[in-house]
Amino acid sequence: MSSPNSRGGRTRSLLALGSLVAVGAIAIGVALPGAVGASTGSVSTTTTMKTIETNWTTFFKGTTPAAKKETLLQDGSKFATFLSEQAKSKAALSTSVKVTKVKLTSKTSARVTYTIYLGTTAAEPNASGTAVLQDKVWKVSDTSFCALVSLEGAAPKACS
Description:
4-stranded antiparallel β-sheet, 6 helices, 4 strands
């Protein structure tokens, strides 16, 4: 699988136009508290993988409020200002993600294969990222998020 940083100029243009995928979503923590939960001894692998998929889908949904996204991003408070700015973009409202595969790599991390869409256009097909378990919530890793926003060329200071 290729990394977001190896994509061509077309993808960079689409991501910039969409004000980046960063506008992702995080409403699940409030709407469906159980869906954001951690993998505990009694939670099946299938349930954990579905939770990761749901949280990624929510994070990258363009209509999810920035404050909600912050809860589904690793160390999300470091990105609060950036997420708020991204949420102001009209183009960002059309952002979504389709998770095609989740593979648990440890009790606290997973590899996620996904495609980011701007409207109906696949802007970042078959991308690979990492989900991490932080504060009992499966989140988009800050590393994955920073790799995506760096395609736009204006990554937040927290990515340094």
